[in-house]
């Protein structure tokens, strides 16, 4: 019953989200077309943007918003999720959705859409969705504090782990959970929790469940016992499954500092997964889709630059136009990276002559005054134009637009263990290090920036890094 109720609430909230998005969509149009022209007629002339042009993209908005809302898990149970996180999720959906919408409007024959409308729509949609989340949360918390809309839980265990679970639940009344009592696993319940009833011991649990000998119906059972005790409870788990009682297992057996814990199922076998990398398939699919679309577009737009650069490289020094090098990608996969050649042909043979010029700590070689770089190569490097051919690597799937820069195998061989985690995500054309002034950042800080990116990854973070890359490249800061 509770699950069906949760599904019904999720459907209602989803419909409300789309209704509010629709309201923001048309309100933005009428403000742009009717209000702004009266306030500033010269800046906002009327009649330039007919409603029919906006109607064309309205279905796209609904589909896009639906994908993003579900992709960001907006309709999971939010009893234990902080309000700030829910608000930030709503803002991310609008921010990412509006960015994709603006890109589509530019690529498709819809460039006549008003920029003011895009801004108004984004602001209004974000405000309405945030307001909705706040109102829903405030009402839900009020109802739960009054003792309504709660779930009863029975905690199996009376030791340290069980008390830790109980303390967490009691400290968050607004989650809507009510502790019915404990089932002893042999430990004595500490005095601070004596107000809760102990319903016998673990061997009694089967009889208690069959007889329904509890003060109230049980919605959930939390097992907070040792691993050894868990092995003795196989039949209890099966019984809970038959009775339709949700079970949770406190799995704080294994120390983990940054890994997220997820439950997966493979052919009926449940797995507890510890992962330090993003695992949201819909968001990763969106990342790949954008990689393909943007890299293809940029390759087409940069063809004149690529042609001019190729001719200039040939004229400035003998040798090939492109430099190919083995790099390490996702989880150590080796691929061939493409760059414009910016050094003389014998650069690799002369490396021993310039090791004393290295300005970077760690196993990486970086030197601003490297004599092996050609005059035209310095121009390409200053504005990161030497990396344009890597758009082909992005299109192929070896790389992404945003991600840790791909290292050479020799560098990886000299990594410390914690450095290697940067290989757990597909390498990128740009990254936090790239927009932080590259060679002004020492090696360990560079590695920390990459891990920071992995730990906090989201489509909106990628978008922010791409935006920061543009001024860094144009000013030449990304290369120094």
Describe what this molecule looks like in 3D.
49% of the residues lie in helices and 12% in strands. It is an alpha/beta fold and 480 residues long. The chain folds into 3 domains: 2-145, no CATH class; 151-253, Rossmann fold (3-Layer(aba) Sandwich); 281-479, no CATH class. Strand 10 (400-402), helix 14 (409-413) and strand 11 form a beta-alpha-beta unit. The chain is flat and about 90 Å long. The mean pLDDT is 83.
Describe the structure concisely for a colleague:
The protein is α/β, with parallel strands linked by helices and 480 residues long. It is built from 16 helices and eleven strands. The protein has a five-stranded parallel sheet with strand order 3-2-1-4-5, sandwiched between helices. It has a two-stranded antiparallel ribbon with strand order 6-7.
Tell me roughly what share of residues is in helical segments.
40-55%
Low-pLDDT runs of 5+ residues are none
Span between termini: 61 Å
The biggest sheet, with number of strands, parallel, antiparallel or mixed sense and barrel status, is: 5 strands, parallel
Strand order of the largest sheet: 3-2-1-4-5
Number of domains: 3
Secondary structure class reads: alpha/beta
Strand count: 11
Morphology call: flat
Order of helices and strands: HHHHEHEEHEHHEEEHHEEHHHEHEHH
Kindly estimate the percentage of residues that lie in beta strands according to DSSP: 5-15%
The helix tally amounts to 16
Radius of gyration: 29 Å
- Mean pLDDT comes to 83
Sequence-ordered SSE layout with sheet pairings:
Layout lengths: L1 H38 L11 H21 L11 H25 L7 H31 L5 E6 L3 H11 L6 E8 L13 E4 L3 H7 L8 E4 L3 H5 L2 H10 L2 E4 L10 E7 L2 E7 L5 H21 L1 H14 L5 E7 L5 E7 L10 H4 L20 H8 L7 H7 L3 E3 L6 H5 L14 E3 L12 H13 L3 H17 L5
Parallel strand pairs: 1-2, 1-4, 2-3, 4-5, 10-11
Antiparallel strand pairs: 6-7, 8-9
Helix pairs in contact: 1-2, 1-4, 2-3, 3-4, 9-13, 10-12
């Amino acid at each position: 019953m509770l699950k069906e109720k949760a599904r019904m609430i999720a459907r209602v909230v989803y419909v409300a989200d789309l209704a509010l998005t629709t309201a923001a969509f048309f309100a933005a149009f009428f403000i742009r077309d009717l209000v702004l022209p009266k306030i500033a007629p010269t800046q906002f002339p009327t009649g330039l943007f007919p409603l029919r042009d906006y109607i064309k993209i309205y279905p796209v908005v609904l589909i896009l918003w639906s994908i993003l809302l579900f992709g960001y898990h907006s309709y999971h149970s939010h009893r234990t999720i902080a309000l700030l996180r829910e608000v930030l999720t709503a803002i991310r959906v609008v921010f990412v959705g509006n960015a994709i919408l603006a890109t589509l409007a530019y690529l498709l024959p819809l460039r006549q859409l008003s920029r003011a409308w895009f801004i108004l729509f984004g602001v209004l949609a974000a405000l309405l969705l945030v307001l909705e989340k706040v109102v829903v949360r405030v009402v839900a918390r009020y109802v739960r504090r009054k003792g309504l809309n709660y779930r009863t839980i029975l905690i199996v265990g009376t030791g340290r782990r069980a008390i830790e679970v109980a303390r967490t639940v009691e400290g968050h009344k607004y989650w809507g959970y009510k502790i019915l009592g404990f089932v002893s696993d042999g430990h004595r319940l500490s005095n601070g929790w004596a107000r809760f009833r102990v319903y016998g011991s673990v061997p009694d649990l089967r009889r208690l469940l069959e007889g329904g000998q509890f003060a109230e119906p049980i919605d959930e059972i939390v097992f907070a016992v040792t691993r050894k005790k868990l092995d003795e409870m196989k039949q209890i788990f099966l019984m809970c499954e038959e009775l339709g009682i949700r079970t949770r297992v406190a799995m704080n057996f294994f120390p983990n500092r940054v890994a997220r814990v997820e439950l997966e199922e493979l052919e009926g076998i449940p797995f507890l997964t510890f992962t330090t990398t993003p695992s949201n398939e819909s968001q990763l699919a969106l990342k790949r889709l954008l990689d393909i679309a943007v890299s293809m577009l940029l390759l087409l737009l940069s063809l004149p630059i690529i042609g001019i650069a190729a001719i200039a490289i040939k004229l400035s020094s003998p040798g090939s136009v492109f430099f190919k090098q083995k790099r390490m990608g996702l989880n150590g996969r080796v691929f061939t990276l493409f760059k414009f050649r910016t050094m003389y042909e014998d650069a690799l043979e002369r490396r021993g002559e310039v090791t004393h010029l290295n300005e970077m700590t760690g196993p990486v070689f970086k030197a601003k005054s490297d004599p092996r770089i050609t005059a035209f190569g310095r121009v390409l490097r200053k504005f990161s134009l030497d990396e344009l051919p890597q758009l082909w690597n992005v299109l192929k799937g070896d790389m992404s637009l945003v991600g840790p820069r791909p290292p050479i195998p020799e560098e990886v061989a000299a990594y410390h263990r914690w450095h290697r985690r940067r290989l757990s995500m597909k390498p990128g054309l740009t990254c936090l290090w790239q927009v932080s002034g590259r060679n002004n950042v020492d090696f360990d800080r560079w590695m920390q920036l990459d891990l920071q990116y992995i730990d906090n990854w989201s489509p909106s973070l990628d978008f922010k890094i791409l935006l920061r890359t543009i001024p860094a490249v144009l000013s030449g800061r990304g290369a120094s």
